[in-house]
Please model this.
Amino acid sequence: MNTLRNHMLHEVTQLDIKSLMALQSMMAALKKPASPVVVQKRGAAAAHCRRVLGNMKGNLSETIMEERAERL
Model:
């Protein structure tokens, strides 16, 4: 988990303001559970984040740039 967190922090520190603003919708999506959860088990949110980030194509910066280009 520390390796993933360090990698994410490294990429986030290299983003500009517009890219950081584009992260808001992604972070909101990560916060919402994919299905209603009655009892949230410990580590479920971290596992969900790892799944979402693992399914991303390329790196975080590229994904943000692509999403921004699609919106324009």
Observations:
- The chain has one domain: 2-26+46-71.
- The chain is about 70% helix and 0% strand.
- The mean pLDDT is 76.
